[in-house]
Amino acid sequence: MMSKKGKVLVAMSGGIDSTVAALLLHQEGYEVVGITMKTWDYAVSGGNKKETGCCNLDSFNDARQAAVEHNFAHYILDIREEFGDFVVDNFVDEYLAGRTPNPCVLCNTHIKWRALLKRADALGCEFIATGHYAKIRKFENDRYVISKAVDNTKDQSYVLWGLQQDLLSRTLLPLGGFRKTAIRKMAEEFGYPALAKKAESYEICFVPDNDYRGFLKRNVDGLEKRVNGGNFIDKNGVVLGKHKGYPFYTIGQRKGLDIALGKPAFVTQIDPDHNTVTLGNEEDLDKNEMHVSKINWIKYPQLIDGIEATTKIRYKDAGTHSRLFSQGNAIRVEFYEPAKGVAPGQSAVFYEGDDVLGGGIIQREG
Question: For an engineered disulfide with 253, which of 63, 194, 267, 306 has Cβ 3.0 to 4.6 Å away?
């Protein structure tokens, strides 16, 4: 029987958010098809911990069980090959280039949504849906806009900036209007009390022990030998000591430097060509501007030169009041007050109120 609401392919990880998203849509009258994506093979990751998060057998079974109990179809989609080649290679390459990557953004933009849409078309689904906390609506200019979730502590609009209009036009995000406490209560009401108590994973899925340094060492032949023993320097180039290799540090890092300077020190710059890591004071992390490239515009089709925005440079960043200017193929972001810890390789996301104007990859500060 065809549903009046239409047919929707829901990405189900087996966790509470995606399960409740699927059941909410089912309850609303959509014809739901569940799909669980296997992105990574933990047998080859070599981490210390067992599979966690979204890619283990228990999660697959939890997702399938919910589908069976509510009488809708469920499939498993193996995207390990495309995920590994693209997301993991980029992750490694970025650290080797002295930058700090954001693999979840890359995966959402280039792998998960495209894989979902392709399978949705094959299964005759008009829509795709996920358990992300964000909202999508059609704006007055006929463009689809992402905006922040009601629950500010769970908002995930930051990691969705790369989604293009053809993807947004077919995406449903049923959790954007709810607080996490309400989702936990719904899980119990749907008959899944264990899900409501299930621990959430904030790790990168292919780094199950959250140790990216260990991951790089295991996956790049001879890396430790190649980069060990470079110099820590200050902003004037004075050598302060030896480090373990530039890829193992990130801008803003204070802990785990293993160097005693008699005062707190922060990583302020990374130079892969010379294998140097610059250390400075906390004030040295303050930047008045930065350049952002690989832009995806969402709310408007292009940059409105000089537009004011709140710019987030990290997922948990509160955002900094700024103005955006065209700079060739990039954007120059001028901060009204200094932003701390601008890290090349990370995502910069521009907001107008709660709406995402667009986003891009931080190229460099200043």
Answer: 267
69 and 25 within one domain: yes
Determine whether 205 is an active site residue. Answer: yes
Q: Which of 54, 55, 125, 205 is catalytic?
A: 205
pLDDT category of residue 171 using cuts at 50, 70 and 90? very high
Same domain, 111 and 243: no
Based on the fold, state whether residues 182 and 271 are members of the same structural domain: no
How many Å from the N-terminal Cα to the C-terminal Cα in the chain? 58
Helices (H), the chain: 16-28, 57-69, 80-83, 89-96, 103-106, 113-122, 165-168, 180-189, 193-197, 212-219, 223-227
**Same domain as 231, residue 126:** no
Q: How far is CA 211 from CA 11, 214, 276, 292, 347, in A?
A: 27, 5, 22, 27, 21
Q: Is 107 part of the annotated catalytic residue set? A: yes
From the candidates 54, 55, 104, 107, give the one annotated as an active-site residue. 107
For 341-350, b/e burial (b = at least 16 CB within 10 A) is: bbbbbbbbbb
pLDDT in tens, 275-310: 999 999 999 999 999 999 999 999 999 999 999 999
* Structural domains in the chain (count): 2
The whole domain housing 263 covers: 221-280
Residue 155, in any domain of the structure: no
Closest C-alpha among 206, 202, 203, 221 to residue 43: 206
- Tell me the whole-structure pTM to 2 decimals: 0.92
Same domain, 275 and 192: no
